[in-house]
Amino acid sequence: MVDRETYQGFSRKLVLAFDVGTTFSGVSYCVLDPGEVPHIQRVSRYPAQEHVGGDSKIPSILYYDRNQQVRAMGAEARQESIVEQAEMEGWTKLEWWKMHLRSKHLSAAHIKDSDIPPLPTGVSALQVLADFMGYLYHCAKTYIIESHANGPSLFASFGDSIEYVLSHPNGWEGVQQKQIRRAAVMAGLVPDEGREAQERIRLVTEGEASLHYCVANVLASDTWSRLPIEKLELDSGSLEAEEAEKGGVIVVDAGGGTIDLSAYYMHSGTATGKAISFEEIAPTECRLQGSVWVTRRGHDFLEKKLEGSRFAEQDYINQMTEVFDTSTKLRFTSPDDSCYIKFGTMRDKEPSYDVRGGQLRLHGKDIATLFEPSIQSVVDAVERQKAASQITISHVFLVGGFAASDYLFKQLQARLSRLGMSLCRPDSHTNKAVADGAISFYIDHLVATRAARFFYGKSANVLYNKRDHEHRLRRHKKYTSLDGTNVLPDCFWIILSKGTRVSEVKEFSQSFVRERVRKESLYQIDVDLIVYRGMSTRPTWIDDEESEYTELCTVYADTSSIAKNLRKKKNGGFTFYQLEFDIILLFGLTELQAQVRWLEKGFEKRSPATIVYNDEI
């Protein structure tokens, strides 16, 4: 458990955490009062929500009218009157829309764009996210005002001291993070995209948020004391060069759209076993195999099974799919048992298609095949993280909405036990792991070191060496630079290697030399950063696996103060200007940060740099 200290701030502050999920969403919050111990609370009452208390999530559903205006959201969108009005007035229902925001690098063979319900004409995924976050804010504000003593004055006392923690899947990258921040501005959570306003927004991966939830609710010190003691030789990117005192764990957040896996071990300092910090011990994993893809496979299975029957019409299939999603899928426990989808009346029957009395009978083994890709993807990801870790991982914790499936849990429990790993599932509120954990991330900030997911670097020119076989193979690319040297392009210069454990304060620097004929061309510099996503452990040449190298972002910096004082250089009859500078990168935070560094009259100077991602949405 986490022993929290009193809040040391000078004024009251409200922290809101939004867990915007593929199928369900929720909000947790914390009122920070000076001198008081922070306490995480949940918004457990929403408009039109029938069940309050234990169920503190709402469906991630929206209706848009023909004028691209949002008309209903959350539990309200499931009201019979809303459904009737939507049909009469031609509204568009949006489900699973979060998947439109996914990174293109998370694409999988089993997913086609047609598998995701389309967006209304003229409405972007960014706009949907902004509309939904604005709705969550309104719900949270109403709940706090109605649930706390002197609620209106309490909420008014926060003023502009409201900060937000916004979570996203492990596999989302800089582009998606930028879109989340932009949506927060569109939703009115913060006034603009300026630095001061954006500092009120913290981003956290769903995997890391889940780890914080498990520490606060599951991983008590007695749990850690039962983990195997291992010695870990920490590399230079680690927080401390010491022995790891406890075994590693993997936290699996099984949600609606993605399954996120993160591996950690705990630094323990005192005899009580109180956690000081956690360190990632393997690159995070993110698989597009959440519960909605079981439903999607169920839809396709029903189409095939009922082909040729009078129930093959899409209206019947959609009705059966909804029952499968909300009932049959959750109750399924064994491939040896039959399951039923009730969709009609006693007069609806076609025995040759297993339809009797308004029910469709499904064989358990057929339903098991719908779960199999999701189950196996978790096992594969666990094996990858176990292989990548230098410390033994023996425990796995399963959280998230999909974790409520007993069949998923039992299958993972059996298969992971064969790998020498035990599986634990918290006994309550696993669907709130991300929102609660996001608040804990803000308050407790337990993870101080993270593992690099990829190889990060840049395309570089290297001096041509005719004795090097790889250089001779590329001699047709050789050219002469402004300073007269022969160089080869397209060498992958690694700045950070995959799997390296990086603390939040660890800086990675890369020196650059830019040569231009005109001095003004050096007043602003830009550096493209590249990611290698392949399987090689020593990627060197971009043309070896060109498809595995993708542009991550471009770092821009104002270097006019350096460039204006440059003196001309000569090479034969040519004159040019040469600028020397370093790019400083911080990879240990949830978001990448950059600075530019240079020497001016023998003194080090620094300036913030801007990171720009290519839009994918």
Describe the structure.
- The longest helix is centred in the middle third of the chain and has 25 residues, at 364-388.
- The chain starts with 12 loop residues before the first strand and ends in a 5-residue tail after the last strand.
- Mean pLDDT is 89; it is low at 228-245 and 270-274.
- The protein folds into four domains: 13-206, 2-Layer Sandwich (Nucleotidyltransferase, domain 5), CATH 3.30.420.40; 219-281 and 382-441, Nucleotidyltransferase, domain 5; 291-370, no CATH class; 455-612, no CATH class.
- The chain contains 14 helices and 31 strands.
- By secondary structure, the protein is an alpha+beta fold.
- Helix 6 crosses helix 12 (433-444), helix 8 (291-305) crosses helix 9 (314-331) and helix 8 packs antiparallel against helix 10.
- The strands form six sheets. Strands 10, 11, 12, 13, 17, 18, 19 and 23 form an eight-stranded mixed beta sheet that branches.
**What's the architecture of the largest domain, going by CATH?**
2-Layer Sandwich
Radius of gyration, in Å, reads 27 Å
The major β-sheet equals: 8 strands, mixed
The unreliable regions are 228-245, 270-274
CATH topology of the largest domain: Nucleotidyltransferase, domain 5
